[in-house]
Structures are given as structure tokens and as C-alpha cells.
Here is the input.
Amino acid sequence: MAVDESYDAIIIGAGHNGLVAGAYLAKAGLRTLILERRDVVGGALATDELASGARVPALAHTVGRLRRSVMSDLCLDEHGLDLIEPDVRVIAPQPGGPPLTLWKSTNRTVAELESLSAKDASAYVSFDRQVRSLAPFLAKLHTFTPPDINHPSLKDGLTGAKLARAYRGLDKRDARTLLRVMPMAVADFVSDFFDSDGLRGLLATRGVQYAALGPWSAGTTGVLLGDSAGNDGGAPGQTTFVRGGPAVLAEALASAARSLGAEIRTGAEVAAVTTDGARATGVALSSGEELVADAIVSGADPKHVLTDLLDPVVLGPSLAWRAGNIRTPGVVGKVNLLLSGVPRFDSVDDESRLHGRIVIAPSIDYVERAFDATKYGRISEAPYLEATIPSLADPSLVTDGRHVMSVIVQYAPYKLRDASWATERDGLGDLAVKTLEEYAPGLADLIEDRVVITPADLENDYGLTEGHPLHAEPGLDQFFAWRPLFGHARYRLGIDGLYLCGSGAHPGGGVTGAPGANAAREIVIDARARARAAR
Amino acid sequence: MGQHYDAVVIGGGHNGLTSAAYLARAGWKVLVLERRHVLGGAAVTEEVFPGFRFSVCSYVVSLLRPEIIRELELPKFGLEILPLDGTFTPLDDDYLWRVNDHGRTMRELRRWSPLDAEAYEEYGQLMVDMARFIKPILSIVPPDPGKLNPLEWLPLVGLARRFRMLSEAQQAVFVQLMTMSAADFLDQWFETDPLKATMSASGIIGTYQGVRSPGTAYVLLHHYMGEIDGAFRSWGIPRGGTGGISESIGAAARAAGADIRTEAPVDHIITSNGRATGVALSSGEEITASYVLSSVDVWQTFLHLLEPGNISDDFEAELRRYKFRGSSGKVNLALDGLPDFKCLPGPGEHLRGAISFSPSVDYMERAYDDAKYNRFSSRPYIDMIIPTLVDPAMAPPGKHVMSCFVQYAPYHLAESDWDAQRDAFGDTVIDTIAERAPNIRDIILHRQVLTPLDIERDFGLSEGNIFQGELSLEQLFFNRPVPGWARYRTPVENLWLNGSSTHPGGGLMGAPGRIAALELLKARKRKAA
Here is the structure.
């Protein structure tokens, strides 16, 4: 088939990072095409429709980590983005006792914790301060392109100097603390501060969400601190909704990208990255159509691109083997519910407490046991859940007093040992409801509609290898200068002309737009160098 | 009041003795004080039952720094290491048996998986390269990350330069070794479950981690770092048990002029105006010294031997945060014969090396799961050796001694205490062995069970941690034992640390003792200049 058109950059996948990268590239004057396999843009930023027209976050339900500079650079508010930040960040129902509520206001949280334990209340202040003092360094780190360790240029030297400056910006004690706690198990980190099982369990989840790690796994403190970087997360973490559902953010990004000149095509599945020698030169679509560009940019996960879309001969055996070993152990599923009313949680008299995240993780052991199952290819008997009822803060999602509930269920391993996701779908839905029922009796009777998304669905429908929402496991072994692979962490992936702008790149997954923005910066540098060379 | 020493060393374990030998050879007047009647600390040989001599705690050697053997001329002082041949992993009806003979190991692996046999060669070469690269770290004094003093970071610059000389694939593997779990790391190469389980076992020895816990891959390298007579990757046992190592280091120290006293427990460290000036023994005797070196662990040193008021609240808080949580026990058996394995009956060469109860990765991980919830493993990982097969003098003729290193045995038990659980723990170990070698019960003459509590009581290791503190990522290098105090000095002037609580940590290496002594000599020279 003849080549129709030529672009400066083609982006594979219109997930939020693909859109962010596309918008920045277009803004820099590159002729940019974004290709999306599905009929809608947004990837994991999706809104599903339930019965009676109710809308629910299909996958991700909060977006509080979205980089501030992305919002302002792309003027997202002008493209319809409206964020809602409830006063309550998270509530954690406890078995046989009152729930823990962490508010946006630290003072309010501390005042409530006083009744639980004066020691833990004061520890909360120290913990919050500790997280807030360490996270800015990581936020800074997140803006960097990891240095080229083998061929450091002057620029890499500058990056190193900037890193050192940011590091020196920490006081001496924080500098030591940072290096000590990053590789630490989050269970140890939170237990250093708190005595209460409930508080420990709740805060420890911030180090394991979406990861095949338990609170006792090394490196999970680093995950918690990374989650706090770049927003005012502090101790409780972020809770920010998009008015109208997550897809509104995706549409805002797409609209921004289009207004800057990018072209977006949906229903356009990339079947292969085409190459000339050892250089990526374009993409071949499933339809047979071929497109060429100077830069091929993957918003899709790196394992998929390197092992499925690229000719292994071009990649070479060593890199192909390494790419095949990128760890992508998906462990979450999603259960979305349409409810006829607001569920009543034990000991929660005030509905406003339910406006944030609802986390079921009453102790570290509870979460660790939930994790244990995944090691043996089983679904947790008592899973860790993070639920939201976004319709409380955003009534536009529903009609007639109904509500939608979005439940992230962990651990539900992609690789089941004695079962298959084809038959476990209902089981996962029942498990989520049963677990919530223990804290909110009567919930089951409110359910009018239910959609279950298994890790297999995440792979098949959303193109996430092994259903991993973060594209690659966030552990210490796939971090910064070695995310996704050592030597390929600078957004240039595998071969010349191929780039990575998705969550598989530094600084990793979550709705941040950070990998997309960082990658665009590097792609523009290369494009300008090419233009100079051509002159 | 006794005489004055340049340095008094608390603890006659292998690190204490190593420091003493180096300082004495530099002309210092040195005294080593050992609480027990024997030297060696956890590297000790004792006649536990009449006629039966045991390496009571530490039982194999490989990592003992070759420079120590060379510089202290340990062979001259009686050190002889007998090689242990191979690792035998008994299974239900089969086994996996790797030996030092490369061809035989290849044939065995091919029987399991031709792919694994191929990968094994590639893997072995890679690990040898990695071990060569990483070894210098074992001799570096860690810098203080809070200070960014260029002089302190200099040794790392050399390392960074050497890192850049590695290929990208090797660099990537190095990063993985520092960050991955042993099981994940090995999954990249191998498919044979008992092979992965047995190899990964070395990643969790002495730690409160499982084979799937991130950070455990690094220890896989240790197997390729060991050196006996200059040959990489051999394990051995010292003739006469591990006490033989301590005896030879002690003899080297004495020959250089050091005084060594046993049954001389230190009651406390004497301080004056925030500086250490000597020690007081339990007998009441006081000994003054210019420097006090403590080779016992940091809790013993700062929370028991030092009187309150000598360290700041901040430092004490850091110390209390330092994690010990011993996770292993030891069962020593006097035997009337040899165990008879169902999967390979009769006596034979397979009994002459390590016998590893690690049939699958899940087995290893389940053993850890028990420990996480503060129970000892219902089916533990056991690393068994029968020293009498290479060193018959350890037992009366025709009899044998067997050493079983057992994991997991967490120091903190959820529902009971170790005094009540000691026998149940010993029984569990015997039951586990009996499943694969049913005759074991009939040949046991005596049994010694060491729980983490016993290891704490008898050997002075807090919470029974055999490495004087967990070897987890956050407690290594410049974080060991406390960030900012990884350079063997302490907040108490003239009090130095030289035990396994300091970099590069525990194991029968002697590295902390050597580096601390050399660093002290350097510091004193600088001061004098």
C-alpha cells in the first residue's frame, strides 16, 4: 500500500500520556498524528455508562496527581476541565469500631484522631510533615529526563548538578532520611510513626496500590513518596474528581491537542512499527495502511511495543530478551456499581464523609494477607479495596437520587493458577460487594447494575499488558534511570526513532501526564537536532 | 586500676579479633575482651556433647576476605579450609544435584531442562563478572549522604568509572541485582522450580525476607564472591569447625602482640566528658584505653554497655529503629549413622556437600509467610551439612555431626514464646527432614536446638540476628547502622564500631573488623600529623 502522508511524529495510543505528548509536540510545531485503537480517546481515563444513563469512572477514578504545569500549559480549563476536590480525602471503615477519616485539613484530621490516640494524632502531624518534606525532591526528580549514564553529555552533567542541588535543598536530616526510607517496606515506615492498626493499614496502601507488592515488600515507601510528589498529597494522598467523569479530562486533552494542531484518529490500531535498518520509520495499521514519521512515539506499554509491534530481528536478541522480562504483573480489577441510594456505612452518620475515597485496609496484616494470595495465583479472600462514590460530589453523573460507586479491587492477579478470568468475573464482583457489605450492610440491596472489569479485560480492552494499569511494575527495579529498562529510560526506546511517552517511562504510572510531557521535551530536542543537521 | 591500652576491643568474635590483629600489627597495644570461655562469638566450635564437636552457629565459610587470610597469614596460624562439594536438593521422588564438576552439573541440569542448562553457563559467567565488579564495595568506607564531602565520595567515583566499562546488559543486571527479588531475578533465566528455589535460598539466609521480596537478589552474588585458595565460588568448612577461623585470627593477633582475655565480660564502657576512656568489667576491674572498639551489635553497645546520657535522643531513636528481627534457628544433631534419602538411598557423595530443603519457590515463600505473621515455618527451609564427612575428627569414629540451619524462626512469636516452643521447633525440623530421610529419627543420639532467643542469650546477638542487624536495603552501606554514622565512628568520641552492625555487614567475612581497624589507623595518623 502506498504511503499517504508523512508526519514529524506519530503517537501510538491516545491515553492521557499520548494526548499530553501529542499536545506538547504540536505546540512545538511538529506535525503530529495520534492513533487510537479504540473508538474513544483516553485509554484508562474512561467513563462507562451504566443502566439509566448513569456515568461512572470506568477505571481510574481520581486525577489529583495530574501535573499542574500540564493543566496550565495546555489550558485545560478552557477545554472543559473542571476538577472537584472534596474536603474529605479518605475514610477507612474499621471492623467493630468507628471509621478513620482523613481530611484535606490536617488540623481537622488531627482533632478527630485525638479521640483515637493522642500519640497517633501527634504522629500524624510528624508523618504529614515528613512526607511533605521528602516529596518535593521526588517531584523535582519526576521532571527530569534520567541522565545518560554511559555517554553523559554536558546536559546530563547539568541534570546531575540540578539533582544535587535539589538534594542539597533537603536539610541534612531529610537527605539521610530520604536515602534510608526509599528502599524501605512501607509497613516499617508507617509503623515507625503510628500504633493504630487502622491508620497503619490505610497509609500503607499508598505504597502498594496497583503493584504486586505487599506492605512488607522493600521499596514500597518509595512508591508512597512518589504518590505524594507533585501534589499537596501530604499524608492522606489526593482525592480529586473530574466533573462529568474521567473521560472529560481525556476529551479536554484531546481538544487541547487538536487546537494546537495535532491530528487524532480513533479506530486506528497499530499492528506494527515499521523499520528501515535499525531505525523506526513508521507504523502499519491493522487496516493495512502504512504511515511514516520521523518519530514513532509509544503511549502503549513498552513490553507491548518492543515484543509485539517490533520485529525481534531489529531489536536484537539481548534487548528482546530484556524487553520480554519487563515486569508487568497486573493485580487489580474494577467493579462499578449503580446504586439506588447512598450506602450506609456503620458508624458513619454524616454523608459528607463518603465524598472522598473509601479504603478497606484495616491493618497491615490484612493487606499483606490479601497480597499473599497473589503470589500463589489466587484472588485475595479479603481484598484491599479503594472505592469512591463520585456522584456524591458530582450529581451530574446520575439521575433520580441514584449513585454510582467505583471500586478498585486488589489483589486480583492477571495470572490465575487454577482458574481463568473467563469464569471468575462474577466472583470478583461478588467478592467486592461482599467485602463492602461487612462495613456497609445493605449495600447489595441497593445495586441496580454492575460492571466487572477483570485484569484480562484490562489487557484485551485497554491494551495493558497483563492488565497492569501502570504499564510496568513500579518497584525499585523499574525506577528512574532504569524504567522501563536500563539504558532506555530517556524516552528513547530500543531503536532510533522510537520513543516511549507512557506510564512505562519515568516517572511512571498514574494520571500525571508527566511521562508524556517529559517525552515530548526529548522528542522535540531530537527533532530540532535533525532539522539542524538537514540544513 | 589495670594498665592502659591503645585500644580495647569488646568481643572476641571474628571481627573483634581481626581488628585487634591489624591494630597490633601496626604496633598498637591492644586488648580483646571476650565474655565467654571460648573465642569466636558466632564463629565458634564447641564440644556440645561428649566427643561431638559442632560449629554451633555459623557453619560454612566462603566470604572470609582473601586479603585478611593473606595479610594476617592465617594458614600459618592453623587455618585450613576443606572444600564442600555441591548442593543436593532432595525432592519427593527425585532430586537436583549440582556439584563442582561442571560437566556433571550440566548433565544433571539437562536432565531437568536443556534450556536451563544452557542458561546456567551464561548466568554463571555473568555472575562472576558481576562479583568481580562489586567486590571492591566490600572494602570501602561508606560516605555520609548528609554531608557530600568529596573526599568521602572519592572511592565511589572509581566504582562509577568501572561501572561505565561494563556492557549495557551487564549494567542492567547489576541494577537488577541491587533491587529485585531473588525469585524474579532467577525467573529471567530458569524454569526448573527446585533450581530456582535452591539458588534463591541464598538470598534470604539470615534475613526477614522471602525469596519474592525485592532486595534479595543481591545476595545471589555472594555465591560467586566466595574465594577459597583464589578460586571463585567455592564453599568450605574450616578444619575443626568455624572456630578454627577465630582461633587462627586470634593466634595471628597474639603473635602480633595483642592480649586476649576470655571470660572477661564488659559491664560498661567508661566515658568522661562525652568521650570513651576505657571499660569496666563485671568483676569490677577497670581498663583504660585511648580507643574503645565495640564489635558487639549496636543495641548491645549503645543501649546496654553505654550508660544513659551519652547519646542524643535523636541518635537513640535511630538506633531503636535499626532492625534486628532474627529469623533463623539452628539444630545440631549428633548421629549414629548417615541419613538415608528416599530419593537417593544409601550413603554417597551427595551427602558431602550442602543438602538444601528447598523443593520449590512456593515452598520457600510459604515458609516466609508463616514468619510474617510471627510463627515459625511449619515446613522450613533447611540448609544441612554433615561436617564429619569431610572432617571426621569432629565426632567419634563411625559417628557423625549434622548441622541444620533453619529458616524461618522469627524472634517475635505471636502466640507463645521461644522457651515454650523450643522443642516443638526442633520437632518440626526433624519432621521436615524425616519426610525425605525417614531414618533420621532412629540415628539421632543428641539434639541441640538453638532458637533466636538462644542465639541472643548465648551469643549476645540482639533478637538472635546472625548478622547483627538485618541486611535489608535500607540498612546497607551508608545506612548501616545509622545514616550519617556508617564510618565506624560513633557520636561518642573514641568509641568505634567494628562488628557486623557496620558496613559491609554480617557473615563470616571479617570485612568490618578490617576496614574499621584500617580507618582508625588512618584517623589516628591524621590526628597525629
